[in-house]
Amino acid sequence: MDASRTNPSSLSLLDRVAIVTGSSRGIGKAIAVHLATLGAKLVINYSSNRDQAQLVAQEINSSFPHNHSPRAITVQANVSDPAHVKSLFDEAETVFGSPVHVLVNSAGVVDSKYPSIANTSLEDFDLTFSVNTRGAFLCSKEAANRLKRGGGGRIILVSSSMVGGLKPGFGAYAASKAAVETMVKILAKELKGTGITANCVAPGPIATEMFFSGRSEELIRKNIEECPLGRLGETKDIAPVVGFLATDASEWINGQVIRANGGYV
């Protein structure tokens, strides 16, 4: 990451505070780093991998110094626990001395066994909905009550193009994300008068650790063949879409689901 690539005119999130859940790796990490290039101060959230989260914060703080104070901090939190979600906002407000402007909920899980619905265990179903749906609900609920009013407030939930792809083996996962997409459309209307927008970004297959887990080479090749652009997506394909939604330029986009998948669906 090269701080010289940024200039003041491009810092459209200068000094705005952003929480990115699940940002120790994968899509969440790419989003957090990209928001930093736009000038944002970051809360890097993780559930278990403290070392990776600290590396992300270190990368941001070393590349984008900010008056000797941190540009990024790490906060451990399980998004399915309301007390933990509250702690994300509490810590952001305490450290940065500002209300949170942007929430990006990127934390998510998928059952790497890719079972049919008939073979999905109740435990795996409950875990999927606990993180993906309950987590999105709790983060959205906290954000709706605490994000900055009057402009610049942004709620961005990461869904999945599998809601449209509807592939066998993704029953619980796709259902958990479909619920998130429905919720965000209603949330946008309920936030009338606050200046806060609420949207989803729904990536297609992205080359991350989570994507490759449990997938055969044959299935990976099939995913590539199904994409008109002939490749898997990369985290850098998603981060700028989220970055745009986080800025003032996106104000007229509200209550929408943006599928970023290269034409996969």
From TrEMBL:
Source species, domain of life: Eukaryota
Pfam families in alphabetical order: adh_short_C2
Keywords: Oxidoreductase
Gene3D superfamilies: NAD(P)-binding Rossmann-like Domain
InterPro entries membership: NAD(P)-bd_dom_sf, Sc_DH/Rdtase_CS, SDR_fam
Family the UniProt entry places it in: Belongs to the short-chain dehydrogenases/reductases (SDR) family.
Protein name (record): Uncharacterized protein
The species this protein was found in: Hevea brasiliensis (Para rubber tree)
